[in-house]
Amino acid sequence: MNQKPTAAQIAAHSMPFMATRGDIAPTFSAEAYVNNQIKTLKLEDFLGKWTVLFFYSSDFTFV
Amino acid sequence: MAAVAALYPQFKQLNAEVLAISTDSVYAHKVFKDISPSVRNVQYPLVSDRNQQISRAYRVFDETAGVALRGTVIIDPEGIIIAKLIYPREVGRNTHEILRLLQAIQYGRQTGLGVPANWVPGMTGIQRRTEDIGRI
């Protein structure tokens, strides 16, 4: 049970969606705090622009 | 957050929008913005992924901690993911590298040239010529 999976075992499985290079960015709609207001943002609002998503663990943390 | 805020004007110049996303509520985001000196100057949206769907969909959700990983995803104007970086929990991002990456992608697309390792703006790209294969 402690055995680490080998590359051969992993390679034998089909690849799930990994949201990585070349994939269609999953669209979403979510509330956001921006310009001192709460707004609903949609990823599609940014089509035509480059978009950089910065995921972070939690407000009020150090790093 | 402050590190991204410092470069935000440069991201805007590259026709890029920045979204910061965590699983906190928008109410937490508001208080965070109001009281934390490091985010006071943030102009980009703080997105609330309260139901964790965005973090899960982008495969940057830490099931054990119940929060998003420190992941960065660059999406092109057509909505295709161009790059994705995951940082360790203990280490903050190199925001200059993310900006450089965006500049490099745009340079490559505008010129059709290959963008070599450690390229920075001002450097030239590489012609993709068949006769050069094996010579560079």
Give an overview of the whole structure.
The complex is a heterodimer of chains A (63) and B (136). Chain A contains 1 helix and 3 strands. Chain A is mainly beta. Chain A has a domain at 28-57. Chain A is elongated and about 50 Å long. Chain B is of the alpha+beta class and 136 residues long. Chain B has a domain at 2-93: Glutaredoxin (3-Layer(aba) Sandwich). Chain B is 32% helix and 20% strand. Chain B has 4 helices and 6 strands. In chain B, helix 2 (26-35) links the parallel strand 1 (16-22) and strand 2. In chain B, helix 1 packs parallel to helix 4 (95-111). In chain B, 29% of the residues are buried. At the A-B interface, strand 1, strand 2 and strand 3 of A face strand 1, helix 2, strand 2, helix 3 and strand 4 of B.
Brief description of this entry?
The complex is a heterodimer of chains A (63) and B (136). In chain A, 10% of the residues lie in helices and 29% in strands. Chain A has 1 helix and 3 strands; from the N terminus they run αβββ.
Give the SSE map.
The complex is a heterodimer of chains A (63) and B (136).
Chain A: H1 7-12, E1 29-34, E2 37-42, E3 50-55
Chain B: H1 2-13, E1 16-22, H2 26-35, E2 46-48, H3 53-57, E3 61-62, E4 67-68, E5 70-75, E6 81-87, H4 95-111
Parallel strand pairs in B: 1-2
Antiparallel strand pairs in B: 3-4, 5-6
Helix pairs in contact in B: 1-4
